[in-house]
Amino acid sequence: MHSMRASRALVIPIITVVWLLVVNGVFFWHRFGQSSLVARLIERLGF
Amino acid sequence: MTALLVIALSSYALGSWLLGLLKIQAASAAESLLFRIGAGLALWSLLLFVLGEFGLFYSPLLIVLSVIIALPAPFLLYREFRRCPVSRPAFSLTSKICLVAIGTILSLTFLACFAPVVGGIANDALCTHLSIPGEWLRHHGIVELPFSTSYMAGNAHLHFLLASCFDPQSGPCLLSWLSFVLCLAAVWILSRQFLGHDHALLAVLITAVNPLVFRGAHIAFVDLQSALFIMLPICALVSYKKEKKWQWLVLSGLFMGVGCGIKATNIIYSAVIIVAGVVAMFLRTRRAGETVRAALLLCAATAIFALPWPVRDLLYTGSPTFPPPLALYHAGKLAPLLGGPAPYSYAEIKGFYDYCLSRYGDYKRGPAALLRFPWDITMRPARFQIGDSIGTLLLSFVPLALLFIPLPGAALFLLGFAVGAGFLIYIVVLPEARYYIAAIMALGPVAAYGVSKLDKYKAARIAAYLVIGINVLFSLGVAFRITARPVLAAISAPAREEYKKAGIPYYEAFEYLRKNRIDTVFVAAPDRIFYYLDGVYEVDTALHHADSSYAGRVVLETDYSQILGRDTGIINPARPGAFASKPLPDNTQLLFEGPDARVYKFTFDNK
Asked: Does the beta-carbon distance from B380 to A30 stay under 8 Å?
């Protein structure tokens, strides 16, 4: 039971952070990233 | 502003009367306000329908009637708030920031309501939701009009008509805003079933900052009224669950029935509410007899209060709805019960459906597209006629809420309702974003539940609040962008003039008629754009065969190319009148020539 709780405490934050990064990363990249300052900045940084 | 006050107060008084008649009382101040104003709006639509059918749409009569009904409202409000005092929850700092964000959205949309109405017939608000009630008011009743959209179920149009009696421009917009506020109150009430104050407020925030939702709050669209009459019956069912009084089922049926008379999608939403409600009730009580009786009462009440518009449509068009389902034509032409041909043909209706489908371009509905729909509507909103977006809060947190199964019963109900209704609307109607507003509202509390469960994981909590913060800033940016020009037009006279000039087709000609107090003008064909005329217009299809009996008549001639909206690219300011494809008729005197319209008078001086 304890190990289940511990793994849950690890898994849920990981899933949450990854999911939020994916959803919001894609959304805001579509909205602002492609043709903006952010794109130029990313390009300049060499990514 | 008077429109908002009088309609809200008169609705409150009417709703209080109904709740008193049904012998039911709301449990909290928020519920009391919501149910009373909601029930009042429902009764107003039924009352106005009757008045309209009897040809009693006279502005002074409607103003006096609504003021008289509103008179006891302050006393009733005072008495009700003595009975159930407003609770003042101790909100956290985060919640206070939420309140500021909600307040900003409400303030911006409220101010934008006072901007003048602009746009041509491409603007749905003007084309249908303002011009149709305007024409009914002009004809003093719900008469047959030469526009097929006038056969749409029109409970929201009746509310707009009443508001127009006070102010034809801001009145209807303020009703949309009132519906927005009431929808947020409903989200609060639904959330409080399984969330604390702070997270219930978060649910309200998630709904309020959704650009798809708030962009309808300052324009005369019916989407928020439609959503209100979906949220209201759910709230009434919650009260039934608590108190077990059959009267709540009648109230819920009233809300659903009136909702079906606002927008056809409400029929689907109402069916899903009934099915989801009945299933939830049976799972909770395990009493089949009681569940069946409740289901029958709910269905009967909904059907009775939904009847007026389908009956009217059957009488005049032979179809219970507009647009009619194409399947109705399988048996041949539509046959209005009053006899004669239907006011629109199969080709027109087919064309209408084809046009609606064409707006989705190469988007094809299918099982895979359906599964991807929540992702697509978030990431590629332009495909679904949104104009803006729905933000990322729902896609971020609703799936995360599923990590914490089993969900509370109320959250599961809202999730099941939103998924069921969304699925049916996608399959049966269209993937048009506006049609999902009520489902989106129902998902607000589910998303907030997800956030509430993440609170105990530090990294997840930080990520969640960061995403909420970014979304709020994004939405405030959208809100400022959408409302900047209307708000400026509402508060500054020169900006108002510029706004109207840039957005209203034939504006100069309308202004000429207004300034010269020409209160009757003749036109060659009816058009919804004449909503902008202050005076009366009469349709005369024989203008080009005018004889001396026409002497003195003033004619407004318009350039058809401008009718969709003011397109300054077409207007040639260097050559006024360049639009005119034909010369001025004989025996006329040109009174005014604008960039896209002219006004002339029949003289017959030489005869």
From this structure: yes
Structure tokens of B442?
Answer: 């129902």
Quote the ipTM score.
Answer: 0.85
Strand partners, B558: B597
Q: Inspect the interface and report whether the beta carbons of A15 and B396 lie closer than 8 Å.
A: no
By C-alpha distance, the chain A residue nearest B399 is A19
CB B44 within 8 A of CB B105: no
B560-591 confidence digits (pLDDT tens): 766 666 665 555 555 555 555 566 777 888 88
Side-chain-side CA neighbours of residue B251 (13 Å): 34
Residue B220 has pLDDT above 50, yes or no: yes
Stated pTM of the model: 0.91
Distance CA B288, CA B7 (A): 42
pLDDT in tens, B160-181: 999 999 998 899 999 999 999 9
Residue B378 has its nearest CB partner, among A9, A16, A27, at A27
**Which of A20, A26, A28 is nearest residue B464 as measured by Cβ atoms?**
A20
Give the span between the Cα atoms of B159 and B136, in whole angstroms.
Answer: 12
pLDDT at B557: 85
B371-408: string of b/e by CB count within 10 Å (b at 16+)?
eebbebbbbebebbebebbbbbbbbbbbebbebeeebe
Provide the pLDDT for residue B538.
Answer: 85
- Number of CB pairs, chain A paired with chain B, less than 8 A apart: 51
CA dist B268 and B272 (Å) reads 6
Which residue in the set A13, A23, A27 is minimally distant from B459, CB to CB? A13
What is the dihedral angle through the alpha carbons of B186, B188, B190, B194, rounded to the nearest 10 degrees? 180
Which residue, B100, B117, B127, is CA-closest to B218? B117
A45 vs A39: CA distance, rounded Å: 10
In chain B, the residue whose alpha carbon lies closest to the alpha carbon of A14 is B460
Do residue A17 and residue B389 have CB atoms under 8 angstroms apart? no
Preceding peptide of B406 cis, ω within 30°: yes
What tens digit of pLDDT does each residue of B401-442 get? 998 888 899 999 999 999 999 999 999 888 888 899 999 999
Average pLDDT of chain B?
Answer: 89
Characterize the bridge pairing of strands B536-539 and B520-523: parallel
CB contact under 8 A, B403 and A27: no
Question: In this model, does residue A42 exceed pLDDT 70?
Answer: no
Q: How far apart are CA B307 and CA B310, in angstroms?
A: 6
At residue B607, the pLDDT reads 45
Distance CA B333, CA B325 (A): 12
What distances in angstroms separate CA B593 from CA B512, B558, B584, one per listed residue?
A: 9, 10, 11
- In this structure, of B79-88, B223-232, B237-246, the range with the lowest mean pLDDT score is B79-88
Q: Which residues pair with B599 in a beta bridge?
A: B556, B592
CA nearest neighbour of B84 among B8, B18, B13, B31? B31
pLDDT category, A38, cuts 50, 70, 90? low
Q: B304 to chain A nearest CA, in Å?
A: 45
How far is Cα B180 from Cα B224, in angstroms, rounded to an integer?
6
* Residue B602, beta-bridge partner list: B588
pLDDT tens figures, B69-94: 999 999 998 888 888 777 777 888 88
